[in-house]
Amino acid sequence: MLTGGEPLRQDVLPLIATLNERGYVVQIETAGTLWLDGLVEYFSGKGAYPPNSIICSPKTPKLNPQLIPLISGYKFILRAGDIARDDGLPNKSTQILGQDCRIARPWDSSARQPKSVIYVQACDEQNPEQNAANLQAAVTSALKYGYRLSVQIHKLAGLP
Length: 160
Known about the structure:
Blueprint: H1 13-21, E1 27-30, H2 39-43, E2 53-56, E3 71-78, E4 117-122, H3 128-145, E5 148-150, H4 153-156
Parallel strand pairs: 1-2, 2-3, 3-4, 4-5
């Protein structure tokens, strides 16, 4: 998986090509606002490359329209009390604490059906009580709306 910061800020296509040529499947996690010419070749599922995938963790209300057809899943970080009642996803900015912001959703407003898998994950606020509330909120959202609950395994294992 290519993640951390924003992998699409640099040309990762040569790395993806090398990994694919060696038999590895690549997954990118991106905020969904940037585009690299050549992504379609590696992520459309129609070429000679393995089933690479793009997971979008939106941070803004808009995504790059070219990227949307290539996204195979969406990941949302949830904080207790900052979750929209109509869809169980964040209703506050993930970048500016407390600021109202309806970040991008994986469906058009008329269909209200997700175009791909939706993962929800509790926000780690480095506070055991708040983290427990965030986890409960993520569990509730996953159960109510049919999302997949996701965890950061490295944090459960006590790794940085």
